[in-house]
Amino acid sequence: MSAPLTPYGELLDIFAALPVLIRDKRRREALTLRDAAGAAGISESAFARAEAGDDVISSTLVAVLKWLSATPTPKRKTKQ
C-alpha cells in the first residue's frame, strides 16, 4: 500500500505527464507546433521544448498550463 501523495508529489506527477498531455491536446485539436504555440502565447521553440519534456522557464510552464486548461484552440482559416 503506497502512502498518499503530498501536494509536491502530485506536482511532480503532473510535471512528468506534461509532455504527453501537451502532445495529446495538440494532436486531438490537429494543431501545428506554430498554431499551438501562438495559442499559448509563447514561441514555437519554447513550446517544442515543453512538449519534448526539456527544461523550460517558469513563464513557459505557466503559459502551457493555461493553454492545456483552455477550451479548444480555434483553427486558422486556410487561404484558398
Summarize the structure.
By secondary structure, this protein is mainly alpha-helical. The termini are far apart. It has a single domain (7-69), classed as lambda repressor-like DNA-binding domains (434 Repressor (Amino-terminal Domain), Orthogonal Bundle), CATH 1.10.260.40.
Structure description:
The protein has 80 residues and is an all-alpha fold. The chain has one domain (7-69): lambda repressor-like DNA-binding domains (434 Repressor (Amino-terminal Domain), Orthogonal Bundle), CATH 1.10.260.40. It has helices at 7-28, 33-40, 44-52, 58-69. Helix 2 (33-40) packs across helix 3 and helix 2 crosses helix 4 (58-69). The radius of gyration is 14 Å and the shape is elongated. The model has no long low-confidence stretch (mean pLDDT 89).
Q: Rg to the nearest angstrom? A: 14 Å
| CATH T-level fold name | 434 Repressor (Amino-terminal Domain)
Order of SSEs: HHHH
CATH level-two architecture: Orthogonal Bundle
How many DSSP-defined strands?
A: 0
Number of helices: 4
Give me the secondary-structure category.
Answer: mainly alpha
Specify the biggest β-sheet.
none
| Percentage of β-strand residues | under 5%
- CATH homologous superfamily label: lambda repressor-like DNA-binding domains
Q: First CA to last CA: what distance? A: 59 Å
> Would you state the CATH class?
Mainly Alpha
Average pLDDT number:
89
